[in-house]
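INFO batch 0412 | record 1 of 1 | parsing
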Amino acid sequence: MNKKNKSLLWLFPYLSLLALGFMMLWPLSAKATIMTFELGMEFSGGTPPEGTAPWITATFDDSFGGVDTVRLTMAADNLTDNEFISGWYFNFDPDLDLNQLGFSYISGGVAESNITINTGVNSFQADGDGLYDILFDFPPPPGQPGNRFTAGDTVVYDITYTSAIDVSSFNFFSAPAGGHGPFVTAAHIQGIGPDDEDSGWVSVPDASIMFLLGPSLIGLGILGRRKKRK
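INFO prediction complete | emitting tokens
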């Protein structure tokens, strides 16, 4: 063994410990991805919200619960004044059974009793866009504007399935139905303008989809996303 190889022998114990640590962390990192949709584009020709885009965000996080659970956090951080969300649309992996999804309310500025969740394959059309599989409906109760999904509010749900799912299960385009799009998500925002009478339909430019990936998923996550986007 030459002198150069001998001089590197001291590295072996540290490399072994590093490899062992990676092996121990692998099960934790194998399902630890965050995907955020930043909705900052008005697509219908309506009125954009007055605040700074992105006006609202949807974050999917599969580090909560087991392999069958993804946490969805919907946030209206950049709405202003009396602007509010009346409906939010998402897609689901067409190779999975949409009827096997379950939704559990975790927390939010909107009471669970004021939220209706509807599911159906390509059943819900956002104005001027395609068809979506999941609709969170936030109807403004008459005379109760305080219960609207408005500026600064956050609504959190755990979405479960009968087998393994992850954030990529919700990273699909809407089915074509004329108009604009397709988009991965869309939402209807009302109460816009000086008289609170205008509304707009917002979505996310493809460049505003952000992933934070566990170490073992970096390559897989990027490859999966590119495959879906062809």
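INFO post-check: The first strand starts at residue 34 and ends at 39.
INFO record closed
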